[in-house]
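Reopening this one. Same input as before:
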Amino acid sequence: MAIRNRKSLFNNQHIELPGANLYRGDCLAVLPGLPGPFDAVVTDPPYSSGGQSKGDRARSTGEKYLNSGASKHPDFLGDTKDQRAYLHWSALWMGLCFERLAQGGLMIVFSDWRQLPVTTDAMQAAGFTWRGIAVWDKTGGARPYKGGFRSQAEYIVWGSKGALHGERYSPGVFRVNPLAGGKLHQVGKPLPLMEYLVAVCGPRILDPFMGSATTGMAAIGQGKYFTGIEASRHYYQVAIDRIKGGRK
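Same output, byte for byte:
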């Protein structure tokens, strides 16, 4: 029954816009129906890492990831898995992406420090060659840690399907301020950061967890074609409105 519901959700929620194809549904159901091939996956999945206990993980995403615990934007979905479930789930969706990537295609996935080990494991389990880790340096404005070190870095795990293609060289540390205002998502990434990442990729970009479509805005802005998937009805509509309106 769950699979049947997922398929109907996929079939009923799809829009094609200039430079973009957007789907609403669970990526495990949507990905098998995408034609591909794509040149890169650039994505920021829900980390499921805001707490060490089951009770902590079940809290709202606003409570887990925002300093104030309050947000005008609704919670995002899929953030309550324990680490073993996160590893298994990540290997599943990455494996589906692997099937739809062209040879030499890039897999670029955000992670925090808690899920970094299992994210690298999942990437290799899915068939990718793990190439390394880049760093998003969130600068001195990142969350402080009393008695310890500032939570200043998030990580970008990257790999490829087979041998690397292309001539471009990219840095391994991206110093970009987090969004201070104007967010369209609780934990949206800054557009300049996504522009750096998309610039390394070929012309066809896939994001299975598109949220407010910042990856899509970066891709379209560089003349690339974007395919995005989002499970949340709210954020799916945000993505449509943003791409239609060209809002940065």
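So the earlier flakiness isn't reproducible anymore. For the record, The radius of gyration is 17 Å.
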